[in-house]
Amino acid sequence: MGESRELILKLGQKITDRIGHKVTVDDPEYWGLAGVITDEMAEVALAMKVRKPATAAEITKKCGKSIEHTEKLLQEMSVIGLIEYNWENEDRHKQYILPMFVPGCAEFMNMNKEQVEAHSEVARLFNEMSRKPLEKVTPMVPLGGAGIGMHVIPVEKAIPAEQKSVSIEHISHWVQKYKGKYAVGACSCRRSRRIQGEGCGHLEEDMCIGVGDMADYLVETGKGRYIDEDEVMEILQRAEDNGLVHEITNIDGEDKIFAICNCCVCSCYALRTSQLFNTPNMSRSAYIAKVDADNCVACGQCVEHCPAGAVKLGQKLCTKDGPVVYPNQELPDAVKWGPEKWNENYRDDNQINCYDTGTAPCKTKCPAHIAVQGYV
10, 259, 9, 16: which is closest to 150 by C-alpha? Predict the structure, then answer.
């Protein structure tokens, strides 16, 4: 790879959230940045604290450059995707943030289409940094994700109509909270997968929604375009029609998000944390879908639409030996969890629609989606 660049190594070390790991030139934290970030940009970024807002003037004092040159470099890094900015303060002055890799600059860097197509290592950076920091901690994450990664929001009409329903679990709550400030851009996960030759074919363009000041950031840096509430609802409906799942960012507490993503388990790196490591707490919502066995006619619609492949068709009719009982998925709640429990082939395995003794394979495999009851 040639001589290592010390400032890029230091920057990769600063941003990484791999606990106790010393970054080297062989790590994605280094080679994912080295092709698109100059040493001078790294000097400015190193004058910032991770996820701590700072003005250009404050950064200038620490990096020793002129205010004009510092602002120029900050803008260039914002377009690249290493830096984000907002105006979330009392007098609405512009402040810059050095984000973590994921969720953060890895997504923003992949939303820059020309950049990621010219530098495929940026796509691999996103892939690696959405996985490596979590390999050891996922089994310990409690329900709700503990402020890590993304959080699934259920389809609103599927939420039980009861007073215990929490507003933050409703997609409409977040749409109204950021009313009038929306932008849409490409799905960075599906773009990253496609660049790596692992594309799944699900919708890539105009699928992920930035809200609040993030909307302005996406438009000003060429990563998205403004949309109104009607188009937001159209995108959300399009996502549901295509079997995608809504996710919101989960790193700023219960009162703030910066994006609403519409994800597929076959490409989404956030959903991968649950599927690959078999640790559903990483992304699950507060609601669990259940099947009413008495009402089920084995039509297979739940199997077709479940984005996580969590439901399969089994034997509806009893055998001469009684009902067929299928095993529950083993979880890390009461056993030691390690790589031997992971499922590296989750993308393929989760698409198996029927158990070996399951009924209605014609339903789940039919390209015309003609409903057939499982016992016909």
Answer: 259
